[in-house]
Write a structure and sequence with these properties.
alpha/beta, 2-enoyl-CoA Hydratase, Chain A, domain 1, N-(1-d-carboxylethyl)-l-norvaline Dehydrogenase, domain 2, 3 domains, eight-stranded mixed sheet, six-stranded mixed sheet, binds (2E)-Hexenoyl-CoA
Length: 674
């Protein structure tokens, strides 16, 4: 046999069934070598008169997880995926796809071209290309609707969510669910059962009736989710084409749509984020096989919104939590909210009916800090006050067992100063969760000057276990995300004084693709956050709003007026306050263009990102992008601020910043951002 690197596909004969096996770690992506091997395998089976049927399966953790994304945008090597799929489809002997792990994208399309499909119960099947700004371009949009109908196909193709083997069997996507541990044997037995059946069933020969109602209902239900993205609409168009065009014409249409998306900036951005997210998990200078500290019980200090949300992450992952509060009432309220959140998720069918009990059963509420003595990781989530945090860490130093990791959920404060209040700064780091902490995917892990390598690596690995996307940040005010938010807020406030309205500034951000603009964000978070609470000291528009009790959505008044359903309308009172400030500071009012708002609120964020990188407070530009995508809802189709700056052109960004008098980061000027 040739070495697995050169030919990752081998064949094995089991009597009259030929088993074609791909072994291309980590995920059996359909790269050039795999495609070549598949071509050879199928040819062998077709040519051999003693073979009546074939089974196609993969070794390792998964069936083909898709086309090899690293090959995208490069010249095609060897046989193309379309040709391999055509060959499988046209095989004169039936081929059974035997699926385990995840049959995704091109992998699912290969399975759809096979004449039969079997899967183990834990398998998942899906077409997630839309999440990469693409569509299933190897026949998936034409074959899947022919197998599962328009409604199910739209959900799988235009939303990109995979289905379980059970669901796949229900909708006809797999013919049989086989034994979890007997995939190959069961697939061979299945192949023998169908070997002589004629005509050989081919998906291309099936028809699917148009279903305009299903298409309309899908658009209605998902319009918001798809806003701004090019790929979902193209996916829908292809599914419709499957109902209207003959198979080969449909394929042609699919290919044209695919090429448009593939050469566009959105897909480049989304593919960038796919790899950025995985890259973020790697810590420069720390070996990936470093021994991790075991984490069996987590302690959380504070049962408020943050502490409760943080605890839920661990409980949901099956990790026991001890949660501490000072007052019984606050403790009961906090745990009550957690239970309610779980029950609401169960009622919506998002988690199993017994999941709330299971999760809450792992929770130990207490009023005694000493109860944290058996915790392997303790996360402090009390309010932002350095003295309070130092006092808590001083106590933890005495209570926590040796080797326990001590983390602060601070969003701004100096982790090194906190660590210095213990005798074990090497065990201390920041774990900055984003609110709501049980929902938001981002976790900034803050590496202090003395944080030990294994402490950092353990926190990163744990983040994956609780399904967070973690990014390593250095100690700097606001870390990566909030530090970049600051110049945006400063400029947004100045723009108000110069003549822009909150509505205009927010609109520019939402049209850009952000879920909300700076003032909508203030209203949601609370205009009173960080306010000095002296109603007579009014130094900014924000102070004036806070002093009048316009604290945001919770008061139905902030930068906007709100009705009971929290729908915002522009506020005449806020316009007055702004006008008053402007005239008192003799600031002339002028027309502000949308472009100026972009240049003065978004470009400074890029500049701050570049400074953070220059100072070594983030490992790489793509980490900064990940922070903004997963922590603040930056539109994924723009790939994060650093990717966006590059696609806009660094020169343009630099010129925009200089025009408005900003001091531009050296690496941004030189175009050498890493
Ligand atoms: C497509 O098929 C289009 C077809 C039309 C053609 C005309 N290619 O996620 P993990 C790497 S589009 C190349 O950490 P998990 C990944 O970068 C594709 N590399 O593992 C990582 O590398 P690293 C449609 C890939 O167990 C390593 O494998 N398919 C690919 O948490 C491990 O990955 C998809 O969109 C790939 N396709 O999750 C599926 N996939 O170790 C994309 C992964 O050097 N993949 N790698 O950092 C996934 O969703 C997940 O990887 C997973 C496994 C669920 C398969």
């Amino acid at each position: 046999m040739t070495s697995p690197v050169q030919n990752p596909v081998r064949t094995e004969r089991h009597g009259d069934v030929l088993v074609i096996i791909s072994d291309s770690p980590p995920v059996n992506a359909l790269g050039a070598a795999v495609r070549g091997g598949l071509e050879a395998g199928v040819k062998e089976g077709v040519a051999d008169a003693s073979i009546t049927a074939m089974v196609l399966r993969c070794d390792g953790r998964t069936f083909f997880a898709g086309a090899d994304i690293t090959e995208f945008g490069k010249p095609m090597q060897g046989i193309g995926l379309h040709e391999v799929i055509d060959m499988i489809d046209a095989s004169s002997k039936p081929i059974v796809a035997a699926i385990h792990g995840t049959a995704l994208g091109g992998g699912c399309e290969v399975a759809l071209a096979c004449q039969y499909r079997v899967a183990v119960p834990s398998a998942k099947v899906g077409l997630p290309e839309v999440k990469l700004g693409l569509l299933p371009g190897a026949g998936g949009t034409q074959r899947l609707p022919r197998v599962v109908g328009v409604k199910a196909a739209l959900e799988m193709i235009a939303l990109g969510d995979p289905v379980s083997a059970k669901k796949a069997a229900e909708i006809g996507l797999v013919d049989k669910v086989v034994g979890e541990d007997s995939l190959e044997a069961d697939a061979i037995a299945f192949a023998r059962e169908i070997a002589d059946k004629r005509p050989i069933p081919r998906v291309r020969d099936r028809e699917v009736a148009p279903d305009p109602e299903a298409v309309e209902a899908f658009r209605q239900a998902n319009g918001r989710k798809m806003r701004g993205f090019d790929a979902p609409a193209a996916c829908v168009a292809c599914v419709v084409a499957a109902t209207e065009k003959p198979f080969d014409e449909g394929l042609q249409f699919e290919r044209e749509q695919f090429m448009k998306l593939m050469t566009g900036t959105q897909s480049a951005a989304q593919r960038h984020i796919f790899f950025a997210e995985r890259q973020a998990a790697k810590i420069d200078g720390i070996a990936s096989d470093i021994t991790l500290r075991p984490i069996n019980r987590v302690g959380v200090i504070g049962a408020g919104t943050m502490g409760g949300g943080i605890s839920m992450n661990f409980l949901s992952a099956g990790i026991a939590v001890t949660i501490v509060e000072m007052q019984k009432e606050a403790l009961d309220r906090g745990t009550g909210v957690m239970r309610k959140n779980y029950e609401a998720s169960a009622a919506k069918g998002r988690i199993k009916p017994d999941a709330p009990e299971q999760a809450m059963g792992l929770l130990k509420p207490t009023l005694n800090l000493e109860d944290l003595a058996d915790c392997d990781l303790i996360i402090e989530a009390v309010y932002e006050n350095m003295e309070v945090k130092k006092e808590i860490f001083g106590k933890l130093d005495k209570i926590a067992k040796p080797g326990a990791i001590l983390a602060s959920n601070t969003s701004y404060l100096d982790i090194d100063e906190i660590a210095a209040s213990t005798s074990r700064p090497e065990d201390v780091l920041g774990m900055h969760f984003f609110s709501p902490a049980n929902v938001m995917k981002l976790l900034e892990i803050v590496r202090g000057a003395k944080t030990a390598d294994d402490v950092l690596a353990t926190a990163m690995a744990l983040a994956k276990k609780i399904r967070k996307v973690a990014v390593v940040a250095g100690v700097t005010h606001g870390f990566i995300g909030n530090r970049m938010l600051m110049p945006r807020q400063v400029e947004a406030n100045k723009l108000l004084m110069e003549g822009a309205t909150p509505e205009q500034i927010d609109r520019v951000h939402t049209e850009f693709g952000m879920p909300m603009g700076p003032f909508q964000m203030s209203d949601l978070a609370g205009v009173d956050i960080g306010w000095h609470r002296d109603p007579n000291r009014i130094e900014s528009i924000r102070d004036a709003l806070a002093a009048e009790g316009r604290w945001g959505q919770k008061k139905q008044a902030g930068y906007y007026d709100y009705d009971e359903k929290r729908n915002p309308t522009p506020s005449p009172r806020v316009a007055e306050i702004i006008e008053d400030f402007r005239s008192r500071s003799n600031m002339p009012k002028r027309e502000i263009t949308d472009q100026e708002i972009v240049e003065r609120t978004l470009y400074p964020m890029v500049n701050e990102g570049a400074l953070i990188l220059e100072e070594g407070k983030a490992q790489r530009g793509s980490d900064v992008d990940v922070v903004w995508i997963y922590g603040y809802g930056w539109p994924v189709y723009r790939g994060g601020p650093m990717f966006w700056a590059q696609s806009e052109g660094y020169d343009k960004v630099v010129a925009g910043l200089e025009k408005h008098g900003f001091k531009v980061a050296d690496t941004l000027k030189a175009g050498t951002i890493k």
